[in-house]
Design a protein that fits this description.
The protein is of the alpha+beta class. It is built from ten helices and seven strands.
Length: 296
């Protein structure tokens, strides 16, 4: 926290002492409204520095996050209304503030002790028998083939395993899990053991689909999200939507069960590269800019 406190001080002093020069350096001009906004941001940075250097507490980190989002809003507005002079500097400043925001969110989430229980459910139907689907899921070391955020699952005993996964903001989390219920062809349930980076539990049920049309897979997950409700909102802001991730994981499992592999279009990446290029979020229409890129 102290490092971010010194960073706030270094950013705040020039904005308060020379707001006009700082505004020009950003490429937004030195009109009165720009000087006033720059000075206000500087005061806010100095207040955050005082808190982080004096009595460090996560609330000051969340204050930085809120300020970062305000800065991004102002810079985005400046980009829309830009006259072209100094545009490159404004673009560079926007990119820098985006990186700073990600750093601040990571620091705030990882240093906030509260956690919010997250419960997820999802259902899909696979054209295989319950016994076949159960056998595939039972092979835990294959789970990373269709669960995009899982890096590795290693079986360590008859009812135990070690898991490693990618988390929001570039983190990696690990935990040991134990199987609490195992009914062949019907149910697998598990929970993390003490010392897990993120406490979690879940179950998957294999139910014959109506009319003998395969198997319904019903997944329920529960885990504690670090950072409380604010951390959950911040994760979504940066493209981490847990419900969509689970739906996508089940869609890929269906492909593995029915086809033998995850079906990808030509040029569509997999693994960590896919996570980086295609962050998970609920389906939405393309914007005009995105449509232009697709048609280009």
């Amino acid at each position: 926290m102290r490092g971010l406190g010194w960073a706030s001080a270094a950013m705040g002093v020039p904005q308060v002492v020379a707001p006009a020069g700082f505004a020009r350096a950003l490429g937004v001009g030195d009109a009165f409204r720009h000087r006033s906004a720059t000075a206000a941001v500087g005061v806010r940075e100095l207040a955050a520095a005082t808190g982080l250097l004096g009595r460090p507490h996560p609330v000051w980190l969340w204050g930085r996050v809120g300020g970062d989002l305000m800065d991004l809003t102002m810079l985005t507005r400046a980009l829309r209304n830009h006259d072209g002079r100094g545009l490159g500097r404004t673009v560079a400043a926007t990119a820098a503030v985006t990186a700073i925001t990600a750093t601040d969110v990571y620091a705030a989430v990882t240093r906030t002790r509260r956690s919010t229980p997250m419960e997820l459910t999802a259902v899909t139907t696979v054209l295989q028998s319950p016994d076949e689907v159960y056998a595939l899921w039972k092979d835990l070391e294959r789970l990373p083939e269709f669960m995009a955020h899982l890096d590795e699952v290693r079986v360590t005993g008859p009812r135990t395993s070690h898991w490693r996964a990618s988390a929001p903001f570039g983190r990696t989390v690990e935990w040991d899990a134990e199987t609490t219920q195992d009914v062949p062809g019907q149910l697998i349930a598990w929970r993390s053991v003490d010392g897990a980076d993120i406490d979690n539990s879940g179950e998957v049920r294999f139910v014959p689909a109506p009319g003998g049309r395969g198997t319904e897979i019903r997944v329920s997950l529960r885990y504690d999200l670090p950072g409380g409700a604010v951390g959950k909102a911040a994760a979504r802001y940066f493209g981490e939507e847990p419900h969509q991730q689970l739906d996508d994981d089940l869609r890929r499992f269906k492909q593995v069960a029915e086809v033998g592999e995850v079906v990808r279009s030509e040029g569509a990446p997999g693994g960590k590269r896919a996570r980086g290029e295609f962050p998970q979020h609920p389906a939405r229409p393309l914007t005009a800019e995105e449509l232009k890129e697709v048609l280009a």
